[in-house]
Design a protein that fits this description.
The structure is a homodimer. Helices cover about 40% and strands about 20% of the residues of chain A. With about 450 residues, chain A is an alpha/beta fold. The first copy, chain A, has two domains: about 1-100 and about 125-225, Aldehyde Dehydrogenase, Chain A, domain 1 (3-Layer(aba) Sandwich), CATH 3.40.605.10; about 235-390, Aldehyde Dehydrogenase, Chain A, domain 2 (3-Layer(aba) Sandwich). In chain A, the strands form four sheets. A seven-stranded parallel β-sheet of chain A has the order 11-10-12-9-8-13-14, with helices on both faces. A five-stranded parallel β-sheet of chain A has the order 1-6-5-4-7, sandwiched between helices. The longest helix of chain A has 20 residues, at about 45-65. The first copy, chain A, starts with a strand and ends with a strand. Strand 17 of chain A pairs parallel with strand 14 (about 375-380) of chain B, so a sheet runs across the interface.
Chain lengths: ~450, ~450
């Protein structure tokens, strides 16, 4: 890893050159580099946590004067229980995953002696722009090295001391490996983001990790493809046949287990015929966990008499704009719908294509919901919070994509690869094939992988 | 198909609505629509060819006055031998391909009763912008319907009569099927391209089919992902151990079988040690086919005494800019290199990532070349002209992509799909999983597809 004060253009150029070397390294060399990074970080624990403490100190002061949010301070803290250990374990987890590069995904005999293969390969150079969380640097470096991609990392200024400490260690660790030092670059230059976004000649993919505003800004200001999501407006449709206890538990988990996460619930759609049977119990469970419920008239009427009056302050009137709002806190927008069709139509207009669920006992309705909603994840009787690379079994993730192009949903190593076609012949020319005298057809024989 | 004079915004909106219905149709309904389109076109042959003759008449007049190129007139002609039949056959070929939608590509048991699947699905709405060739409308409509995508088609003004005639027939054919009429829209409004490119809310992917200038213009003027290529600058590296006859044949096929195609050869890199042994024979074969060879000093010196003087006008001096030029005609740029590393370095700087080949008897060098060149296709001892969806066995293609993201190389039905994750649970919540008391780990059991 280079810790560079070089210009963003030079960083991008150097990363591009390094990516070509990295792309030709065998899995063993890439895995060895991850072993070395892990060992280096483990050894440098104290100095990295000391650097992190200096970042934290400044951030706490800024938070007290209202310049930074408390949640940002919390995300910054590498000393938080389990965070350091998780970061180190993540590196070895990634190392031990199957090699995503060099996988043959298609093999066709075009003719005798002429064989086509489709082989997975790295994309090239990734640009990762992230805000406070310093452990991201180790996660992303691991995923990039494992998938054979070079990466340029640009972190938020709040975690500069932590980044610099971590990257010095990673840099020293890579020195002893075959992975070129320029393959992972940390750009610390101020105001470098726009210059990096202009390097579409050298950078192949941008992955922003941060606020909706950051992602939207990046999407509007680069020609490089952007992988990720601006909004995570997840909805659940509560159908009349759902089990009442299951419904309450899933709603509570989806809304309250981490309200600031992109996979948390923001809109609840209730079938009108379930307003009396299912909604009061679910509402009570949500309110008991501190959720403020913004209801339309019917949903409000169904619960006002059933919720004790000291909790009535938690019931508000919903505004139209609430259905387009990612609250990221304990507020939930609630709308009454006639049935599945109206629920699907609402989600396809107001949702963000992230993750949406149906709670129902009918497999027929569940399947209909899951094939009609346009989203990266569609769930039946499960919490929207499962939308996560670790939970999906991908080891870790670089982010969750709501793009329809390339990778969708939680993106692990697969999403950091592309493919190329290799054709091996023995002097074959195209003029041989076709219709008419002296021409022959292709064989197009599917070969086993 | 709607033949619309509606505003581009309304066309995009309507296509988006139709795409949601199309996405839920079973394969049988999509295939039936292709059968109906085929039958409709077969029946309307005479009136469509008459409309095409009117386009041709105007185009010939324009060509005579120099306003249109002869090659455009030729591409416009649906009556050319075999073209009509190929167009009709293509519809049935696509219909008979495996359904690209609903394929399960991953199945994981996250826990008892909690199963994750990854399922292929349509992307949504495609915008196809193309120039003269009227048969594209039938190809693209077939691929779109088969893959469950809605498509907006915007053709060049030279083929308006043909487009309108074909789209009327397709529209009438779709009336009798389950595919919504708005799923395939032909926009005939003048100057609609920029308005369509602005509809990133309703359109998911743009596929331009036309000149490099058209593609570059589109890439610079939309936030919608663009699939395709601006340049096809293909190179061949002639290594010293190559078989002389094979080398000459492959070079001739790559350069001369269709010089205007994107997969044709533009740059030849010759190993210095092959200048005396391989180059004179290859040069003679190329010149005999009418190729003008632009050589660097060494490559020129190696052949001037060996080529008869009446052909010497076909040998020119190369300029640096020639190595960045897609000639699209019978001109070839020739450069002498010391060996494989220099060849790879040249290609990775000057090539367009389309298709590049090595001619060699050494499998070791071939494999090194194929893992070092950054391109959608890397070939060993085969003509670059094999880069084509039909030749690859994909039935047909919507274009050839030099993107590294999403689809690369010739793009068939696969490239018109994305995937979604479906999670089926029985009330599962995320709070159950993790470390510590009362928590449990995920099972992450890989299930057979």
């Amino acid at each position: 890893m280079s810790l560079t004060n070089a210009s963003p253009v030079d960083a991008a150029k150097a990363a591009n050159g390094a990516s070509r070397i990295l792309a030709t390294l065998p899995a063993s060399a890439r895995n060895d580099a991850l072993t070395a990074i892990h060992a280096g970080l483990a050894e440098a624990r104290d100095e990295i946590l000391a650097a992190n403490a200096r970042d934290l100190e400044l951030a706490r002061v800024a938070a007290e004067s209202g310049q930074l949010s408390q949640s940002l301070v919390s995300r910054l803290d590498l000393g938080k229980k389990g965070k350091w250990e998780d970061m180190l374990k993540g590196i070895l987890d990634v190392r031990d995953l199957e090699d995503p590069v060099g996988q043959i995904t298609l093999r066709t005999k075009l003719d005798d002696g002429l064989e086509l293969t489709r082989v997975t390969c790295p994309i090239g150079v990734l640009l990762i722009i992230f805000e406070a969380r310093p452990e991201v640097i180790a996660n992303i470096a691991s995923l990039a090295v494992k998938s054979g991609n070079a990466a340029i990392l640009k972190g938020g200024k709040e975690s500069t001391e932590s980044f610099v400490a971590i990257s010095k260690v990673i840099s020293a660790a890579l020195e002893k490996t075959q992975v070129p030092n320029d393959a992972i670059q940390l750009v610390t230059t101020r105001d470098a983001i726009q210059q990096l976004l202009d390097q579409d000649r050298y950078i192949d993919l941008v992955i922003p990790r941060g606020s909706n505003e950051l992602v939207r800004h990046i999407k509007s200001n680069t020609k490089i493809p952007v992988l990720g999501h601006a909004d995570g407006l997840c909805s659940i449709f509560l159908e009349q046949s759902a089990d009442p206890n299951m419904a309450a538990e899933i709603l509570v988990d989806s809304k309250t287990s981490y309200p600031a996460a992109c996979n948390s619930l923001e809109t609840l759609l209730i079938q009108e015929s379930a307003l009396e049977s299912l909604w009061p119990g679910a509402a009570e469970a949500l309110i008991a966990k501190g959720v403020t419920i913004r209801c339309d008239a019917k949903a409000k009427a169904a619960i006002t008499s059933k919720i004790s009056s000291d909790l009535s302050s938690k019931i508000e009137d919903v505004q139209d704009s609430d259905f387009d709002t990612e609250f990221l806190n304990l507020t939930l927008a609630v709308k009454t719908v006639s049935g599945l069709d109206e629920a699907v139509a609402h989600i396809n207009v107001h949702g963000s294509g992230h993750t949406d669920a149906i709670l129902t006992s009918s497999s027929e309705l569940a399947e209909k919901f899951m094939s009609s909603v346009i989203a990266a994840g569609v769930y039946w009787n499960a919490s929207t919070r499962f939308a996560d690379g670790m939970r999906y079994g991908f080891g870790t993730e670089v982010g969750i994509s709501t793009n329809k192009i390339h990778a969708r949903g939680p993106v692990g190593l697969d999403g950091l690869t592309t493919y190329m076609y290799k054709l091996r012949g023995q002097g074959h020319v195209t003029a041989t094939y076709g219709e008419g005298p002296g021409k022959k057809p292709f064989k197009h024989e599917k070969l086993t992988l």
